[in-house]
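Chain A, query sequence.
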Amino acid sequence: MDAEDINEITRVHGEHFLDGGSIILCAVTDVGEKRHICLNQHAWNEYDNPGRLVFNGALVGVRSDDAREIVNLLSNAGFKAIESDSIGQLWYTAVITDVELKELPTCPDDELRLKLRNSIVDFVESNAYVSISHNGVQNN
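Chain A, predicted structure.
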């Protein structure tokens, strides 16, 4: 995991999936590297690792230093809302420079993307995160 080597990120895209609530945020680091931060859905046990935080495809330890660093990065992240059509261009570039990032077309900064970020931070800091991570989803 390389979260501890990142000074800051700029969130550029976010999505909420209909699999039970998975959230993925796409970001660019201060040195132009792309990162994905995902919170797996926490409604069903049928999917792998419900309610777990994933950074660039790697499962993050519950209450680990990496988890704290990711929450800190998200809490302090800047935001540049890239148009959906431009996301592909961004992800197929090895390293994105500040100039290239500034030139990508943007869409209006909407509250949904802020809510997605807040949903990840709030859940990872909750007791439910620890419980679901260790015990799975408890459906009554």
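The two ends are 35 Å apart (CA to CA). The beta strands are 9-16, 23-29, 34-39, 53-55, 58-59, 78-79.
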